[in-house]
C-alpha cells in the first residue's frame, strides 16, 4: 500500500521530519493537502533568510560598454545570479511553507 501522505510531503517539501509525518498522518491526506496549498500566517522561516546584497547592475551607467567592460560585467552578473540562486535554494529549505516556495521556484521562469 502506498503512503500517500508521506509521498505528498516528500513531493511538496524537502523531506518531512518524523514529527511532521506523524502529524500529517493524523490529520489525513485531505487536511494535509489543504494546509500545504493554503498555509496560514507568515512564513517565519523564509523571512529569516534575507535577500543577499547583490550590488548594482554591472551595466548600469554604461550604455556603450567596451569589450573589456562587457566581459567584466557579464562575469559579475554570473556571480550575482549564482549567489541569488543559492540564496533561493537555501530559503526554500528553511521555509515553513516549503510547498509554496517550491511552486514559486517552479513557476518563476514560465
Rg, rounded, reads 20 Å
Globally, the shape reads elongated
Helix content: 55-70%
| Separation, N- and C-terminal Cα atoms | 36 Å
Count of alpha and pi helical runs: 6
Sequence of secondary-structure elements: HHHHHH
- Whole-number mean pLDDT: 93
Number of domains: 2
Task: Write structural notes for this entry.
This protein is an all-alpha fold. It folds into 2 domains: 38 residues, no CATH class; 68 residues, no CATH class. 64% of the residues lie in helices and 0% in strands. The chain has 6 helices and no strands. The longest helix has 28 residues. It starts with a helix and ends with a helix. The mean pLDDT is 93.
Précis, in short:
The chain is mainly alpha-helical and 110 residues long. The chain has helices at 4-12, 18-27, 29-37, 44-47, 67-94, 98-107. The chain folds into two domains: 1-38, no CATH class; 43-110, no CATH class.
List keywords for this structure.
110 residues, 2 domains, 6 helices, mainly alpha
Q: How would the blueprint of this fold be written?
A:
Blueprint: H1 4-12, H2 18-27, H3 29-37, H4 44-47, H5 67-94, H6 98-107
